[in-house]
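USER: Write out one fold?

ASSISTANT:
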Amino acid sequence: MNHQAGSGRNSKPSNTRVDAITGAVIQGALENIAIEMGHKLMRMSYSSIIRESEDFGAALTDAEGRQLCECKMSTPLQSGPIPGYVRGILKQLAARGETINPGDVIMHNDPYGGASHGPDVGFCVPVFDGKDLIGFSVTTAHHLDIGAHTPGSCGIVDAVDTYAEGLQFKAIKVIEGGKKNAMVWHIMRDNIRISDLVVGDMEAQIASAQIGAQRFLDLVKRYGKATVTNACEDLMDYSERLMRAAIQELPDGVYSATTYIDGFLDDASAHRRDLPICATITVKGDEMTVDLTGTAPQVSDRPINMPLEGTVDCAIWLTIRSVLLDTVSYGPIPQNSGLTRPIKIVAPKGCLANPIFPAPVIARFCPGNALADTVMKALSQATPKQVSAGIGNLRVIAFSGDNAGAPWVHMEILEGSYGGRHGIDGMDAVDTLFANTRNNPIEDMESHLPLRVERYELREDVVAPGEWRGGIGSVREFTYLGDGGFSIEGDGHKFRPWGFGGGTDGQPSRLDQISAGKTQSMPSKVPYQKAKAGDRLVSYGPSGGGYGDPFKRDPAAVLDNVLDGLISAEIAKSHYGVVIAGNAVDAAATAKLRAARP
């Protein structure tokens, strides 16, 4: 299946329609609207996943669903799919013969209709200038529970189809013409655990989207609809020109890469484990095609499939934009649908990256991050100095239980790490690629939940050597203070993050459960199971791959790593050819050791 980026116009850019100063002012206004939406949503939200981890999206689109701007604090996997949400809503409403009117608020989470997955619920507020629909203000956010068959909205790794993943809302008007649809809210409260928390977060989303809609209308009233529309067209054309120019600088050619995800390592069925993800990038002039042919077939009864629109496309676009238009080099650029016009995506129907309904998709997070990593690996052949080595993937744990008669659910995103890149060591213990959420403060968790964090530290002696070393994963240890349960989705227990240009592969992640003094190693995906007070979960994050020949690493940098306790003096000698004597580099012995290497 071919998936053409964007919607509506895909022609090459035309001449500018408004003067450059007016265009820049309108661009700044649009970006500030999205940022304000994000801040308002964070401040009004109840759950830590939005308030602290910033697992939300906020953006404005035009009436066709083309993105005009997005909140810079939000995650790419939340703001990036928003044009797909809008297109899915428009398609669904048209199929039902329904119209969009002033005062409507539309809820949508259909993963086969543009949404990323069921827990990422979008609220869409249409913006009218008089009788004319001129755009949409949209927020998305990950909700802690959406009524799936076990508590929480992650770790539902045994869902057999999308119906088992929770409530599905396909372009539902929760507010119609300014009047609240009470029946929809009753259904949600009756079918969602911790409904006060979830509904409170949803109401925060609606309020922030309504603020964005009003700000957008104010902008149009100030400059006029024609001027704002023309400026938006110019901004999209400008972003497109930047992307085309960046692609044009790459050598024409075909670049391929394959990586593997765990799938379900403890499953007897071979079609559920050791699954390949393949990406072949064809560069021709100022256009690029990303072909995912060769990727494993969909797993029809397990939720690690990735929606083509809402996950796969965003993983690809985010990676290409990050590599080719790095903010460090280019500075801020307009984030809009123009960036995706030169990029074409091909994904065979029925593969992991383009599943067929009702194949489950709720646990698409880690496979999607692995897909982004695969695209990065393919791009490394075309532009080696602009990529990072292999990333360490993430893990999400859904903790749950009952506290004094009240159910509780908590979602914890456990960091991965970046691989090294030209001139820069890999980042330690951070969310990678399209995730980009923040870690949840321990104090916030312990003040609200019957959980204690016993350890939160960097792993030792797992650094992937390279001229620029790989990033290091973290160790987090959780203790239950009361009876509860958990479910886990993750990946990267078997396959090591790839090293680049002579760098060493990173180290995989690990997960242990400690109960009644016994330690049990667990797979990367764990369906819901109960836990007793005193039980512990210990998560060991992965380390990213090394970049470049370790024997070319600056000896002073190796010494710093030894003094910081990241590596031992023995590893410095054997992996980097650096001899440490006391707290200093023995320059003569180091030169001799490095010269003697075959």
About this structure: Residues 8-239 form one domain. The CA atoms of residues 19 and 231 lie 9 Å apart. The radius of gyration is 24 Å.
